[in-house]
Fold each of these.
Amino acid sequence: MSKFYEVRKRDGAARLGILSLRGEKKQQTPLLFRVDSLSRGEEEIKVIHTEDTQFNDLFRDELWDVPRGTVLLPDVHPLVTKVNEAIPLLFVDFYVLSYASALLTSPREFVRRIIDARNAIPPDVALWVPSIATAENAALLVYMGVDVIDDMNAVITGYQGIYQTEEGDARLSALEDLPCNCSVCSSLRIAELRGKNSTEKALLLAEHNTLLLEKEVKKVKERIRAGNLREYVELKVRTSPFLTAVLRILDIDEEDFYEKRTPVARNNCMMANTMESLKRIEVKRFATRVLERYDPPVRKILLLLPCSARKPYSLSPSHTKFIEVIDRYRGHIHELIMTSPLGVVPRELEVMYPAAFYDIPVTGYWDAEERAWVSSCLHAYLERNVRKYEQIVAHLSGMYKEICSDVAGDLGIEVVYTCEEDEEVTSKEALNRLKERIAVLCGDEERMPGFEKKTSLLKAMADYQFGIGAGSELVSRKEGERIKITGQFPLYKLSVNRDVLARVVPEYGLLALTVKGARRIQHSLASYTVHIGDFLPKGSILAPGVVNAGEHIRVNDEVMFSGSKAFGVGRARMGGWEMVESRKGIAVDVREVAEIEPD
Ligand SMILES: [Zn+2]
């Protein structure tokens, strides 16, 4: 818990924060400390050393006018118990992970110690991993929750004659040119640099290495701001087997760590360009929720369709054609879209994040892992829901058809295919075949009324966000009610007797509730409720005002808040667990608040 540090924005475990230094000087994190400025005493910070401190002293007021940090020792250190006992008592602004350079020997050790450190310290305290940052690994360090790094490694390697690049180290002697535009590299040629005496050369190399690291930190900050650091990390780790191993270990071993920290929605596109993209929390979370938080409507036929490049799918040229040919029978049909990397997307969830927010390279070539993942999603969906349908129709070709046929074989399910081998799904013949088969299988015509289409979308979105049950509570008509859904797809707005209850926010792929909407489904929102103290919030609710918060709440979740003086709705700026554990920072952006009159 800190006095001089505040997290302002989160992107997974990465954060943008403000560390207040001397006087009014504020520094944004991720922060790069220049070692020489620290040694000259220009940055006023105080690191508490276990060896020379009486912990009682730490509570003296005069020690409180600068940010303070304490050292995190490895478990094997003889002084470790002292620090661990003291941790709950210490009100510090940052922790320094000691012996960090030892982490570079094993990717597993690297993951273990940094994640353990992040888990052990409060969320509103900065983590400083000293001496190991390079332009190559800085993005990954920040992605793991490191807030402060320094230029120690840049300086030391400079003195060793190493010229760092964004892709790793190079020996000055091996270069023919200086592949950089920093102030050092643009002021002299490589021959001049080589000709300098050893001290001058070392200083210039150290300066270049530091400037390069500085530039990298700026790039990382922009990525966090844009909410796409993950894509950048997937790109950056490619330069080294060590960094790639770290990311792969994180994806498999630290799922819980990232699940708690990954925003539930974003207003940008998720790019799935690498093998690691399949392992992203957003992908796993979507697949899990389709199974656990989605209840398909009761229909005769399940129709499997391929995805489209344009999102939401309904608005794409291919889906416009599919919908046109099945339109007369659509009331009998439930549509499920097959896609990589999300697996299967029910039509009703096509607007949700990330279903409407992803892009992948499409080549027609699939690797085994991608294929296995999509198969497992379809397998799990059918295993759970196949009994709800009378017939399954697959309008698929290529790999999607192969996957479907394998899964159907596995489960012993009969599927009607409407595309021939190597036929385009949008070809006239295929579309005609789909039309004919559907007509035969459905029998009588049954169009889908616009109202039903809209209701099922809103219901599914509410279930996906808040859990099964929330949706039907929201859209079911009670006696004396007139339910109306207005707006063009996907900008639907739900009202009851003229009171707006909820609206779709396509920019984030979420459903936003009004106070009236939240009241209506209050009981289903228990895990998405923030209990606040005895006050009437204005623009935002700060962490100290939070008494308790649902543990399922993630960054950008729509939440309800409730206290003795106020009831309202807003968007979470931190996870529910973090609201409870933090003493600083904005917990909820308030959208609408209703004052509770005292009895
Ligand atoms: Zn340079």
Amino acid sequence: MKDVVEAEKGEIFDIELDVNILEANRKLANENKELLQKNGVQAIDVMGAIGSGKTSLIEKLVQNLKGKYRMAAFKGDLTTTIDAELIARHGVEVIPINTGKECHLDANLVKKALKRINLEGIDLLFIENVGNLICPAEFPLGSDKRIVVVSITEGPYMVVKHPFIFMDADVVVINKLDLAQAMGVDVKKLENDAKTINPKVKVVATNCRSGEGIINVINALEL
Ligand SMILES: Nc1nc2c(ncn2[C@@H]2O[C@H](COP(=O)(O)OP(=O)(O)O)[C@@H](O)[C@H]2O)c(=O)[nH]1
Ligand SMILES: [Mg+2]
């Protein structure tokens, strides 16, 4: 496991409030995108609440896509490297990124992490964002696609209550399908809510424990 990536003093977290932080982030995100494209790396930002199944989804995707792509992952968390270790079990390089108190990754941290991997050695990069359905929406990272994972255990209103993150998503994964009956949650309603907010979004239902639906996620990502 590589060293944890953290922001230095004076980097984007410390920019004075009168500076347009979002604009600064967007510029760095564009630089990240250019660097990734130049090296032929496709990056996928995985967003969603804590416990929705982001790490489980990445683990299943990595298992399924082994042999087809050379992969790596970045794992954003406040202070721990627990998830990074879970993903690393599957034989891919994982760079842990700690945000301290911040509720989202930003393009600066991703830029720093990009310097730690051999981009020529990979084709596909998964970026697990910090568990949050609000903050990551405003901070593009330079990824090609954005997934939002929403768990059935979060109840029937998770999508309608967080419209902004779904507006910017390419794929919505409705996870923990096995618990739909116990939770009394209508999966079709969650799907319709996402499509109402973002008519172009692809919606896939999964059980990231068993692997059910993972092939549909791979198809939705056109991988
Ligand atoms: N029953 C069930 N549990 C799941 C499923 N996907 C993930 N989990 C469990 O939910 C918990 C949180 O998952 P995790 O992937 O760590 O969520 P994250 O915080 O979004 O990364 C773990 O205990 C997983 O084993 C699922 O489809 N069904
Ligand atoms: Mg996780």
